[in-house]
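Escalated from tier 1: zinc ion holo job.
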Amino acid sequence: MKKTPFIAALACGALLLACCGFFAYRCFSLNSRCQNLETEAFQLQENNSKLQEDNSKLDTELTDSTAQLKERESYVAGQKEYISELSEQIDSLTNGEDDGQEETDSASADDSDTDSSSSSDSYPNLYAEGCSPKDTEKIVYLTFDDGPSNLTPQVLDLLDRYNAKATFFVVCKNNEEYAEYLSEIVARGHTLALHSYSHNYHEIYASKDAFLSDYEKVYDWVVENTGYTPSLFRFPGGSNNGSSYVVNSIIDEMEERGFQYFDWNVSSGDGSELTTTSNIIDNICSNVGNVEHPVVLMHDGRGKNATLAALPSVLEYLSDNGYEFRSLDKSVETVHYR
Ligand SMILES: [Zn+2]
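Tier 2 regenerated the structure:
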């Protein structure tokens, strides 16, 4: 009789212990599940923020690429326009030559005084006072962009040899070590003009203010190093680079400030890394005759050794063909793409 309550109590105790053990086990597994879920949630958050970061990077890259593409498209469009302009000029010159030939053919063989060639003047002294025979002058304006560099002194020496004056559109960034050549350009009678501080299309054509801010830096650099205040400039890539809206607003602003820009009507093609010395010579010599006052684009920036190598032949050819080498100034008729 005494054993029954004892067994019952023992059974109750065992049951209670089992229940406690079960609940403890459930609590433990729930807790560890909870911890696992928290870890997973943390990882998901991390992955999410990484994805957001990648997304914003891709967005920025896409925006940059789109802007660069637009810039390239407008540059190509400008170049196409320029090429078609040149083709028109060549056509009109070819027609002009044909007309002249026909006139000569129909003229009497004995009548040598009726030479229809526009390059010679049968009456060189027949000008009223104050009028010079401008139309028969053969002037070429050689221009050098992107310098100064280690090549500039050699370019200057070659120009001196032909008593040639030229125009240098300089860039500051990465050319600071050649600042001493700026004064040399002025001292030797050439025109020192501005091109850009950074020459970074994406930056300078972002807005009118971006252009002016860049321009001020190269302007200050030149003034500090030479005391000379330049008034001519050339747009990097030409005035048909960048968006029309931005470039037109820059032109208006710069003209108000008294700065005048020059594009070119003869390209040496030395902007391309693939060009050769003979290509440069050919591009210049075969095209100068197609325009009345050739403004020739060349480069004296670092690495333009093909241009330096071409320069003696170019100077020789132009000199032999009666050209006078002059530097640009504000009185020269501008060459503008816009
Ligand atoms: Zn340039």
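The helical segments are 3-106, 152-161, 180-187, 201-204, 208-226, 244-256, 277-285, 305-320.
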